[in-house]
Every structure is written in C-alpha cells, then in structure tokens.
Amino acid sequence: MRIREVHVTPVAFRDPPLLNATGVHEPWALRTVVEVVTDEGLTGLGETYGDLSHLDRVRAAARELTGVSVHAHHALYARVAASVGADVVTDQHGLTGAGSNQKTVDAVFSPFEVACLDIRGKAAGLRVADLLGGPVRDAVPYSAYLFYKWAGHPDAKEDRFGAALDPDGIVAQARLFIEEYGFASIKLKGGVFAPDEEAEAVRALHDAFPGLPLRIDPNAAWTPATSIRIGNALGDVLEYLEDPAPGIGGMAEVAARVPMRLATNMCVVTHDHLPPAIAQRAIGVLLLDHHYWGGLLRSAQVAALCGTFGLELSMHSNSHLGISLAAMTHLAAATPNLNHACDTHTPWQDGQDVVAPGALRFTGGAVPVPEGPGLGVELDRDALAVMHEQYRTCTVRRRDDTAYMRSFDPDFQAKRAHW
Ligand SMILES: O=C([O-])C(=O)C[C@H](O)[C@@H](O)C(=O)[O-]
Ligand SMILES: [Mg+2]
C-alpha cells in the first residue's frame, strides 16, 4: 500500500462572528482537505488548517510522499520534516501558543498521518480507534463551546444564534446548544470582557445548569494576580480553568494559588514545553490536539506521557469539519486517560460539512465512534466542490481575528494579560 497520489484542497465555510481575546472570527473559516490515494486505489482523508503559508507547506510535503508505504509512519514523518526544513511557524492565530520547528513539522504531518490511518483501517476492516488500541468508550463526550458573539457579521443579517454579549445571552446560547446536542458540560470562551463580567456569566451558567461541569478559557488575557482572584472566586463551580495567564511561569504562579486544575492549549503545545511545565506544576490538564501534536499516534504517545506525570486530558478545537471531528472522536475513544469532555466548534458550522451525512451524530452531547472502517466517514464531493469554490471566491487567505476586529474598531488591541 504505497502512496500513489495526494490531493490537497483548500476549502472555506461560513463562520459566525465569535469573539475571543484576539478579536473576532471572520465570515469565512479556512481548512485544507487532504486525500491520500494508494497504488491499490484506496483513499484516506485528513483535515488541517487552511492558512496559505500552511497550505503551501502541506502541498510541498505532499509532493514528497509518493512511493512511501502508508504503514511507514516514521519514514513519512522524515519526508515531511525534510520538506518543512528549518521553518518555524509562530502563533499565527494568537491563540495556540508559541511555535517551534517540531510543532510546524507536526502540524504539516498530521493530515497525512490521519489519512494513512484511514487507509490502513479500510484495508484491514478496522476502525481507526481499533488501530489506536481499541475504543475504551463507545461515544466521546463533547462540551457546549460557548462564545460571546455579535448578532451577525456587521455587513450581514443576524445569524440564527443571535447575540451573546452578557450573562443572559450566554445562558440562552447554552440552552440552545444543550437542547440541540444534549451537551453535559460547558466551556465559555472568555478574554473578551472584564474578568468579573465573565465570572458573572459563569455563575449564571452554574445557576441555570446546576451540576454541569463548567470551564472558562480567557486565552491568557488575565494577569496572574487577576487569575488567582477569579480562580478563587469561581473555586466552587469550575471543573478547570483554561489558560488564564500567559506562559508556563505565569500559569505556575496561578496554579499554586487556586483550588482547581489549570488546563492549557497555549503554554504546552509541543514536546519542549512538557518538561518545564511538569517541573513547575504549571498545569493539571493538557488539551490534546492531533492537528498540532503530529497526528493520532503521536497524540496517543503524549497522552500516555501525561498519564505518567499525573496530568489529566481534554481536547482542543479550532473551527473544523467532519474529517477532523471523526479523527478527534477515534483518538478520544481510544485514550483511556481522557477524562474531560472534548471541545468542538461543530455546532458553529451549523451543518456545513465535507463529509456525507450519517456517520457522525451527537447523542446526549457525545459522538458515537463511527462504525465504518478507517475514519468511517466519506467525502461528499459535491460539498467539497462548493466549499472549494467558496475558498476561491472569498478573500480570506489567513485567519486574522485581530485585523477583522480592527476593521470595525481601529484601536482594538489583542488582549494578552490585559486585565
Ligand atoms: O484556546 C482555545 O481553546 C482555542 O484556541 C480554540 C479556538 O481557537 C477558539 O478560541 C477560537 O476559534 O476563537
Ligand atoms: Mg484554550
């Protein structure tokens, strides 16, 4: 099963005006769909970011993979690493932590690795979760991922989610998501309004949904002192506090003085970050993300390492489509020590997808592991063509929440330890 050809297709899909510490989501979110085809005619799917510089790297790496066996994980990684060379991508979205060469290689490698596992599963009649050691749960719980948001993009009509700019709006959004998806835990993206206002929204969620695990993630917009104050004020309601303050040092300072575990997808985002974070006891929960931890097998290794050092696991999400949701679900299903509901942006995509409907569904806030071999999802070629055309005609080529926000508020500054 050697790689005969690789197709790389950038796509764009509608995204609501979700607010975060760096600005606001643009009307179009970008992703890249990767199809790996073997000499035997089997096709595997992968999905990754759509920013142009990353797309160029993925395309360049794809050209180097012809002839390699889909089983040759290390050889494939070496080809991708050689193709990426010494490149280092910095934190291009302002939300996912420091860059490194390894993180850059891992991010480029990930969609190819997922596609190869999809092929290996299809060839063996096994699900990707089986290839990762077998599922330890039949369905993967996800959290209701709430955002402060505008009613609609300023040049468009109100979207169906409406505005959420205060505690009532956030509770209404949670109610909608819980009604539609059955979520049994809630994450609030913070870092948008003053910390006390956001803490009030968390309290309102606690009152409206007693007993549901809650988290807030201000993406390092708070100083350590503010993080400690808010962390203690919310000590009785938070399951964990995600990236309150910047850096491993800042997080360690907070962790020592708040009652709950701190979680991160910002200060520990590549292997080099693990030893200092563990030594300084900066975090208690790592948000895995196979898109930048080098695919599913490498993420499983990181998960095992976290188990050794007593770190709990959750899962991070950017705006994504169904290939990623399937991959996340297989990985989470086969990760015994994943003990928190995963994040997903799926509700915000509101039915837009490149995979054919049916294989992925939410029941009680969880996604059952797709049953078919491999990832268990099929590409919807018509949808892919439509989304590729949207990519061609939209002007977004790189996610930039700050620039989009500045087009409405020229003085806007990304809020990194702002409060
Ligand atoms: O810190 C996080 O959980 C994220 O970075 C998730 C997403 O990127 C989210 O913040 C977003 O899309 O605005
Ligand atoms: Mg986060």
Automatic annotation (TrEMBL):
Keywords: Lyase, Magnesium, Metal-binding. It comes from the Bacteria. SUPFAM superfamilies: Enolase C-terminal domain-like (SSF51604), Enolase N-terminal domain-like (SSF54826). InterPro entries: DgoD-like, Enolase-like_C_sf, Enolase-like_N, Enolase_C-like, GlucD-like, Mandelate_racemase_C, Mandelate_racemase_N_dom. Its EC number is 4.2.1.40. It catalyses: D-glucarate = 5-dehydro-4-deoxy-D-glucarate + H2O. Pathway: Carbohydrate acid metabolism; D-glucarate degradation; 2,5-dioxopentanoate from D-glucarate: step 1/2. Its cofactor is Mg(2+). Residues 167-261 form the Mandelate racemase/muconate lactonizing enzyme C-terminal domain. PANTHER family: D-GALACTONATE DEHYDRATASE-RELATED, GLUCARATE DEHYDRATASE. Belongs to the mandelate racemase/muconate lactonizing enzyme family. GlucD subfamily. This is glucarate dehydratase.
